[in-house]
Specification:
The chain has 466 residues and is mainly beta. The protein has helices at 3-20, 182-186, 226-234, 241-250, 252-257, and strands spanning 34-39, 42-47, 55-56, 62-66, 77-79, 90-92, 118-119, 132-144, 148-152, 159-165, 173-179, 206-207, 221-224, 259-269, 288-293, 295-298, 307-310, 313-316, 322-323, 329-330, 374-377, 382-385, 392-393, 399-400, 404-406, 418-420, 428-433, 439-441, 445-446, 452-453, 457-459, 463-465. It folds into two domains: 55-298, Jelly Rolls; 374-465, Tie2 ligand-binding domain superfamily (Tie2 ligand-binding domain fold, Beta Complex), CATH 2.170.300.10. The strands form twelve sheets. Strands 3, 4, 8, 10, 11, 12, 14 and 16 form an eight-stranded mixed beta sheet that branches. The protein is rod-shaped and about 125 Å long. It binds 2-acetamido-2-deoxy-beta-D-glucopyranose (7 copies) and calcium ion (CA).
Length: 466
């Protein structure tokens, strides 16, 4: 006897669909955590997987340099342009605003002329390596959504490693190696992102794409190619994000690959523009970076569609009764079921996997003793009685099945609470009746059950005109 339950559910689905049709353009984008719907119990919430919009993440990071005093200008120094070693009248002076090159200038609004940039001291201690670590920390888990792009105003480094951390800087893994000669620098075969396939996506490569061919004006950027990697699943123009999301959902390693809490740019050897280092002009060699792009979204485990920056800290605005910086736990009193992340599946709207109130569960299976079985309906976050007996229906078996009416002299938990309408099949339009047991009669028929004829009619499998 599942029919009454199915009816109730179907009714709720229908109203839910109507309620969400106002947002057709947002379908499949996971930007709504819940929407309003109606069941025969009244208004209700309908829950969906959701995530914050992708944004420029450089606004929210802290930057640390190692060595800490590696920025040029303290004491003031002169340096040469790389194209022309005889032009050494450029000055870096930390105490003069126009001549200072502090780390913030890697993250300011670019597009100004001239560009603003951070610059290191020059390679005075050659042949001791000029090594600098630039560490970017969010103190929050971030999912990358676009290429990391580093723009150099010096030549691009001859050796560099991009590293990531997933545990707030406790451990680090390489993301990509960069060198003019990968074999020589890292004993790795040179590869490019085009060599990567779906099966080797997690492989860490060394690339010579962004170090070779020193051209001052044009080739200033070093990339970590997120979009090319996405494209292996989503197609060249990323038109099939559903396929990518499906993969991310089922493969934790893949999801983690694009997830970070910190990034570290390890600059190991500056551009020299030649095979030999000119020891007489070491102030030609330094690092200068004008811009770093990191595009991503807060990781909220598909339980939040916004992430706020308050008191220098990013936090997901958790829905679905989850909590924690990444919505990684169930709230107190909502732990009736183990926490789990929301799911991108089924495409396009996903599954919310909301946290369930402790009080909701078999204990609260309230069915007026017409059933002792309940079912938890995820999308509505409610418990519904299953297989209501005694001709009842509804979330708590509190209504009468169609074709039955409420016995006014019986309590809700009485076996006799619903009375068969018993409408005469020939005299009535339907087998339903109103709250006092009156059926809806066809023309000529009368009586509570439509089993009698009005004057002028004769009973003959219904009332017929004389
Ligand atoms: C940075 O500080 C260390 C230790 O105080 C010192 O040895 C080093 O020369 C300094 N480097 C620069 C570039 O000022
Ligand atoms: C940079 O980070 C690496 C590890 O990621 C560490 O071994 C090294 O000592 C750090 N400092 C410098 C100046 O390279
Ligand atoms: C990082 O965030 C946690 C809370 O999520 C906070 O307790 C801690 O102080 C933060 N650390 C830094 C360095 O801001
Ligand atoms: C650069 O090197 C050349 C020749 O090696 C030398 O004449 C010149 O003085 C050097 N420039 C500086 C600024 O040291
Ligand atoms: C927790 O879930 C209930 C539904 O069970 C909802 O009414 C309530 O608003 C939620 N609380 C929060 C803070 O999201
Ligand atoms: C209505 O309920 C009362 C109380 O249980 C019962 O005695 C009576 O028979 C019921 N009426 C019908 C028509 O079933
Ligand atoms: C049911 O219909 C009858 C006849 O039309 C009417 O007298 C009665 O008030 C109705 N009862 C309810 C609860 O609407
Ligand atoms: Ca800048």
């Amino acid at each position: 006897m599942r029919f009454p339950l199915l009816l109730t559910l179907q009714a709720s689905w229908l109203t839910v669909c109507v309620a969400t049709q106002h947002y057709p353009t947002t379908w499949g984008h996971y930007d709504l955590c819940k929407s309003h719907g109606y069941t025969d119990e009244g208004p209700t919430w309908y829950y969906m997987a959701c995530q914050p919009e992708a944004a420029d993440m450089t606004k929210y990071l802290k930057v640390f340099l190692d060595p800490p005093n590696i920025t040029c200008g303290d004491p003031p120094e002169t340096y040469c342009t790389l194209e022309n070693p005889y032009m050494c009248n450029n000055e870096c002076d930390a105490a003069t605003e126009e001549l200072a090159h502090p780390p913030e200038l890697m993250f300011d609004f670019e597009g100004r002329n001239p560009t603003t940039f951070w610059q290191s001291s020059s390679w005075k201690k050659y042949p001791k390596p000029l090594a600098v670590n630039i560490t970017l920390s969010w103190n929050k888990t971030i999912e990358l959504t676009d290429d990391i792009v580093i723009t150099f105003e010096s030549g691009r480094p001859e050796q560099m490693v991009l590293e990531k951390s997933l545990d707030y800087g406790r451990s680090w893994q390489p993301y990509q190696f960069y060198a003019t000669d990968c074999l020589d620098a890292f004993t790795m075969e040179p590869k490019t992102v085009r060599d990567i396939t779906q099966h080797t996506l997690l492989d860490i490569i060394c690339t010579e794409e962004y170090s070779r061919g020193y051209v001052w004006k044009n080739d200033k950027t070093v990339r970590f190619e997120i979009k090319d990697r996405f494209a292996l699943f989503a197609g060249p123009k990323l038109h099939n994000m559903a396929s990518l999301y499906g993969q991310l959902d089922t493969t934790k390693n893949l999801r983690d690959f694009f997830t970070i809490t910190d990034l570290r740019i390890r600059l190991l050897r500056p551009a020299t523009g030649a095979t030999m280092v000119d020891e007489n002009n070491l102030s030609r060699y330094f690092y200068a970076i004008s811009d770093i792009k990191v595009h991503g979204r807060c990781k909220c485990n598909l339980h939040a569609n916004s992430c706020i920056y308050d008191k220098e800290k990013l936090t997901c605005e958790c829905e679905h009764n989850t909590t924690g910086p990444d919505c990684g736990r169930c709230k107190r009193n909502y732990q009736a079921r183990a926490w789990s992340a929301g799911s991108y599946l089924p495409i396009p709207k996903g599954t919310a996997n909301i946290c369930v109130p402790n009080s909701v569960g078999p204990v609260n299976c309230e069915c007026f003793s017409h059933s002792n079985r309940c079912s938890y309906i995820e999308v509505l976050n409610t418990v519904i009685c299953v297989s209501c007996k005694h001709n009842t229906r509804g979330q708590h078996c509190q209504l009468c099945k169609l074709g039955y009416y409420r016995n006014a002299s019986a309590e809700l938990d009485d076996e006799n609470v619903c009375i068969d309408c018993n409408c005469n099949p020939f005299g009535s339009d339907t087998d339903r009746c109103n709250g006092t047991g009156y059926c809806k009669c066809k023309e000529g028929a009368t009586g509570a059950k439509c089993h009698e004829c009005l004057p002028g009619y004769l009973w003959d499998n219904g009332c017929k005109c004389k």
